[in-house]
Amino acid sequence: MNINTFHAIYASTVFVIAYALITTERFNKTLVALAGAVAVFFLPVINSNEVFYSRDTGIDWDVIFLLLGMMIIVSVVRQTGVFEYIAIWSAKKAEGSPLRIMIMLVVVTTVGSAFLDNVTTVLLIAPVTVLVADRLAISPAPFLIAESFASDIGGAATLVGDPTSIIIGTGANLSFISFLANMGPAVLLVLVALIAMLPPLFPGFFTVDPDRVADVMSLDEREAIRNRKLLIQCGIVLLAVFIGFVLHHVIHMEPSLVAMAGAGILIVVSGLDRDFYLSSVEWETLLFFAGLFVMVGALVRTGVINNLAHAASHATGHNLWLTTVLILGVSFLFSGFVNNVPYAATMTPIVAEFVSSLHGPANHDVLWWALLLGTILGGNLTPIGSSANIVIVGLAERAGAHVSFWDFTKRGAVVVAVSFAISLGYLWVRYFAFA
Amino acid sequence: MRAEDLEEKFPIVPIDSDAVDAARMIAEHSLPGLLVTDTAGQPYAILPAFAMLRFILPRYVQDDLTLAGVVGEPTRGQATKNLAGKTVGDLLPDYLGDIPSVDARAIITRVAAEMAQLRSSLIAVTKDGKLHGVITASHLLAAALKS
């Protein structure tokens, strides 16, 4: 065995063990990722230059700082109560009809998830949902399950909607506008399908005692706004950040810098305590990402990724459509059961290889859309398919509404099957049918 | 003056005692909190009174304090309903930190320093490794002002 092969086997073994330990959810995933990173430091081909300064094999600082900036922005915006205001206002607009309430909350969750982290979105929407369900004297579980699906769907719409979107979008150097223009229509189609599926997914749930409707209508959403001045400040900064995201290629400012600038401005204008906004950053998550990037970087550096990409493209005969279907299908399948962040981090350099090597009349960026749709939408299959799902099931339990693995999965399977069909059809029609 | 000279009669509850009874004890005697012991009778934690205030709120308000203004006045019996079936152990915060305690022979300055550093309104007094009594911040302050 030559030394390069040994390095490749070593890096692969470290990665597979780390991935397996992360998937079991029995170990602290950050410690596992950092331990894996330290293990690959022993490879002679990995040095500090590779780890800290290489875009291809090192820590993707754009991802880290985009996440950091968005975490701070979200923590400040949360203080205003605007999300709760919107959620309660939407529920009241539905005039007490459980189906209309569910549709409104699903839409609010999807839009929220497009711009906020999925877990944050469900943490914000769940208490309001339980409140409304409590007022209507019905179980909150169906609402929460539907919102879980919606949060994953919404996270696929924009570059900043989900950590997976951030990893893939940044790795592929996709602009915010390009991301939205290509993923937005697919997300919209899947959302419409989800809304249409809600009655058959939750049969018999949508009847309520008419006397309870007044209890919902008596909620005053204006009481949710805690700080009007901060709300206005946040609104202005968020608008500027959104414009920055849209125009980042024009103003030559990466989304990570836009997010950090927005976070910095909000920290200054809000006057919030330093301990507050520093404690609201999920430092463990950022370290987890760093460790993950180092391990994946070692796979790139030792040629493992290159070999995998060649083997896969050989299997598909270097055909772009077949490769698209393979990426979409495998991603849907995997992400229903495993943590999709390490999956996305590993697949990004593989798909990058495909993009540069395959032939076909269509734009090769279709491979990125396939990876995004499969990885994010596939997470709806099981309660462990995404972090938002895990959080929702926990919150339902706290609210006294137990959601079993089967309760969730039997509905998740339907949603994922429909999402897969829509994604496949969308990719074919948009990128291949007329190419 | 030593810590054992400042001890006062104070309710001490085991970790597995009923949460509703504990809440009533705090309310009826206007206590700043309770000293909680483990099943072996050793000091385990301080349960401050304010930590129990969250339990007069519905669960969804505990998860999102923004909704406090939205829901209006608490419903009758809400606190008892939220505490029913729970033990004192269930009410303790996730991160307990150091249990404030001093030896019975510690001087008053040491007692005050421990309570100030740990920001606790109660402190356990131990002798030969066993729980001996409790000092409250108000009692300590009264003694300090007298001296």
Q: Short description, anyone?
A:
The complex is a heterodimer of chains A (435) and B (147). Chain A is an all-alpha fold and 435 residues long.
Strand order of the largest sheet of chain B: 1-2-3
| Low-confidence runs of at least 5 consecutive residues of chain B | none
Rg from alpha-carbon coordinates of chain A: 22 Å
What is the first-to-last residue Cα distance of chain B?
A: 10 Å
- Counting helices, strands and paired strands, the structural category of chain B is alpha/beta
- Terminal residue distance of chain A: 46 Å
Q: Would you identify the CATH H-level superfamily of chain B?
A: CBS-domain
Query: What percentage of residues of chain B falls in helices of 4 or more residues?
Result: 40-55%
Report on the structure:
The complex is a heterodimer of chains A (about 425) and B (about 150). By secondary structure, chain A is mainly α. Chain A contains 21 helices and no strands. The longest helix of chain A is centred in the last third of the chain and has 28 residues, at about 405-430. Chain A is globular, with a radius of gyration of 22 Å. With about 150 residues, chain B is of the alpha/beta class. Chain B has a single domain (about 5-145), classed as Roll (CBS-domain). Chain B is about 40% helix and about 20% strand. In chain B, the strands form 2 sheets. A 3-stranded mixed beta sheet of chain B has the order 1-2-3. In chain B, strand 5 and strand 6 (about 130-135) form a beta hairpin. At the A-B interface, helix 7 of A face helix 4 and helix 5 of B.
Looking at this protein, list some descriptive labels:
heterodimer; A: 435 residues; mainly alpha; globular; B: 147 residues; alpha/beta; CBS-domain; 6 strands; 20% strand
